[in-house]
Specification:
Elements lengths: L4 E4 L8 H4 L5 E8 L4 E2 L3 H11 L3 E6 L5 H15 L8 E4 L6 H4 L5 H17 L4 E6 H5 L11 E5 L10
Parallel strand pairs: 1-2, 2-4, 4-5, 5-6, 6-7
Antiparallel strand pairs: 2-3
Helix pairs in contact: 3-5
Length: about 170
């Protein structure tokens, strides 16, 4: 049976998850972003709301790393932030360049991008969590293709393309 979920960050504001509870099965919550460990300012609110209304959740971290060491640093910040919680929908490494940061600061090679994903996910798994990679189909088909990341599940970003509905 297919399940329906949403990803949630401060970009979405204070969405009333209680009102959505009968329309979705889970929420994937942005914990934070970057190698400095910046937490999403709605992270705790969103987790606490999911727990209050009994809505299953998972977590993701938006990467600004430019190398594998940076991704490991991001994993450390991520693990520290999620320690008090118990996600049931996994922990995801958001590997995209939606705002052009990587492009402006020296886009890593595909091999380095794959190393970054591998190291983040491996560290999260070693801490006892289920881990996978979040990116667009284009990134999976181009930058993140190959054998190195096969063992990790993929969460493929899809956005509405016509009249607010996904195809």
């Amino acid at each position: 049976m297919a399940k329906r979920g949403i990803d949630k960050s401060s970009h979405n504001g204070n969405i009333d998850l209680g009102a959505l509870k009968n329309q979705i099965d889970f929420v994937i919550i942005r914990v934070g972003y970057g190698t400095k460990g910046t937490l999403d300012n709605k992270f705790k609110r969103n987790v606490e709301l999911c727990e209050q209304i009994g809505l299953p959740y998972g977590f993701y971290w938006y990467s600004y790393a430019l190398n594998a060491d940076g991704a490991i640093t991001e994993a450390d910040h991520f693990l520290s932030a999620i320690a008090p919680y118990h996600p049931t929908y996994g922990c995801w490494f958001d590997m995209e360049d939606a705002d052009g940061y990587k492009k402006k600061n020296g886009m890593p090679s595909n091999s380095v991008l794959q190393d970054m994903c591998y190291e983040f996910c491996k560290k999260v798994e070693e801490a006892g969590y289920y881990s996978g990679i979040y990116a667009s189909a284009s990134w999976f088909n181009n930058q993140l293709s190959g054998e190195k990341l096969k063992r990790f599940d993929k969460w493929v970003a899809q956005w509405p393309t016509r009249g607010g509905k996904q195809r």
